Every structure is written in C-alpha cells, then in structure tokens.
Amino acid sequence: MEKFSHSALGAELSELHVADTQLRTAIFDCEKDYSLDDVTELNHSLYRGIGVQETADIAARALEIARSIYPSDREPTQAELNELYGAIAALKLERLEAPPQTPLDDIQTLVNKLDSVDSDVCEYLAGQFVFYSDGFTFKNEDLPDRTLNFVVNDSFLKFECFFAAASAATLHLMREVAENGRGFLARVVLSRSMLECALQLHFVTKKFLGLASRIENKQSKTSLQEFEMFPLMFQKAMFGSSNPDNPDLEDPYHINSCLDALPSDVDSTIDQARVKHLYDQLCDYTHPNFGLRSVLIDFKQNPSDYFTTMTVIDESLSGQMKRSRLIDLVPAAYLPTVGLFEASFQMLEEIRERLNGANVQAFGDATRFNKVTSPARRRGVNE
Description:
By secondary structure, the protein is an all-alpha fold.
C-alpha cells in the first residue's frame, strides 16, 4: 500500500504562518515617518464590515487616542504622527483575527507525526481481513467452551474488519485534507468528516474493549451472554445508515455518543471538552452558518461614500482570502485525529490480549485455537 508524505502540507502551513506574521509586523514600521494622509488612510481601514454602533465606538476610541497624543487646536508634530499611527495600528491589530495558535516549530512536529501514523496504518491495512460467512457457525449448548471459542474468534474477526474499514476511511480523509489544490472551505468540511471517522473508530473500539474486559475470568456461559450484544454493535458500526433508501439497515452510532465517550484530560489531545469545542467550530463551516459564509466574503467601507459597506466576494471562489485560517483549523483537526488513531490501536492490542486470555481459560493451552485467529496483524505477523 502506497504511503503518503505530508511535507507539502507542512510547507503550506509554514508559509501561511510566516505571511501572517509579516502582515502583523508590516502594519507599523517604527523606523518610518508617517504623514497625516497615512494616518487618515489607516484610520479609514478600521471600518470594515461593522454596524453603525460599532463604527461609532471605534471612531470614539480613535478620537480619544488622537486627543491623548496631541491637542485639537494645532497640527501634530512628526513624532506625534508616528505615535498616532502606531496607536491606530495597535487598534487595527485588535480587530484582526487572532494570531496563529500553532507555533511554527510545532508544524514540522505535526507533519512528522502524520507521516508516522500514515505509515503505521498502511502497514496494518496491508494485511488480510476476513470473517466467517453467515452459513458457517458453531453453537452447541452442551459445549459452551467450544462455542465461546468460536464466538470469540468470529467476533474479533468481524470487529477487525470494521477496524480496518474505519482506519482506511480516516486515513483517506487525512490525505484529502492535506491536498492544497482544494479550496479552503472544502478542506475544512473534510476535516470534520475526518474527525468524525476517527471518533467513531475510537468509540466502537472502546465498546468492544469493554465487552472483552467483562468476559475475563467469567464462565463460558456467562461470557456467551455478554457476546449476545455484539451482532447489533457490529451492524451499527459497519453497516449503520440513516439513508432512507436503506430501511433494513441499523441506525449508525450518533456522533454525540462518540464525543461523550472521550476522556476528560486537559493534557490530552483527545480531551472531551477540547474536541467538542473543535467539532462545533468545524460544524459552523459545514452548515450554512456564519463560518461557512465568511470564508468567501469580506466587507469594506465603500470608497464612494461614508454611509455604505461593500460586500466583497472572493473572486477565486476557493477561499483564498481566508487561507490564513488554515494555520489553526487544519492542525487543530489533525491533532485529535492522530490521538484517536493511537488510542484505538492501543485498545486493539489490549482487546486481542484479553480475548486470547478468555480463549485459553475456556479451551486450554493445548489447542491451536487458543489465540484470536485473525490473519491480519498490525505488524503483518500471523499467529
């Protein structure tokens, strides 16, 4: 399976970061002497896409700043003009979007992590994923140990097929988000889908781990009762659909359930509060809300008069005017996705160990079926 490099994404994010920094530092040059026209032009640039009340508030602040620097009964000196320009530049910086939250050095760290995860998942997906067909089963009430052995193996095989399918979908979207030939809005929408896929992978894996944990050290009959819930779990995870054309399929797991299953750990990239906040941000760009509309429009004062505001449409229709938002939104979506991948693979190995233990307990060490018999191993090793 061909691996993917995120180096182009890293270069793009770094370039945007540098451009944003230059924009902020270019507003005011402490070595330059500014004219009254320069001050007036900068002052006019403050009034973009704001209402009457906000315009009045900013105008009042600008006037207050000016009066604090020089009196109204005389022309300002050069030193006062420079000070005034700097003060209004600071006011303008307040109205810019927040500076990048992702440090420049962290971008390369993120790229390295994405490449590593991409490589690991590709290696995992290179295995074969099979499960027993519906016509092949073993169920004998008089032989609960053998029945449990079959159910354990069959359930794990099916679960790992889901795990592989969910991993492949998430990895595909990770690569698509990195594609800088797409418009900004499309990449943000794909970021939400990417995060949702990773959330579902983590949620279902956590549920199956709970099942595997509950059967440890239990009698075979009790364990078989626990596994009665697995068929519905598998149907909802693998084939769940809300498409009205598929009325016979189970409803999928809701994304809110996946979010609620996250840990509360402020130091973790998959902290529940942090990921929920990010998810709501991405939703605002996916639904016809302000976030989505703001990508392709901007506002500025009409140069023809003082009482109308012009709506500016992005001529590229690709979100080029707002590309700087990628500096934070894309890394913000990637970080929990990587964290969810890592947590899910850790749980996968724990599930394997717990189910192996259940098989050994029920069926003994002497049988070749005492290990979960999936032909797909994370590192390509068959047991």
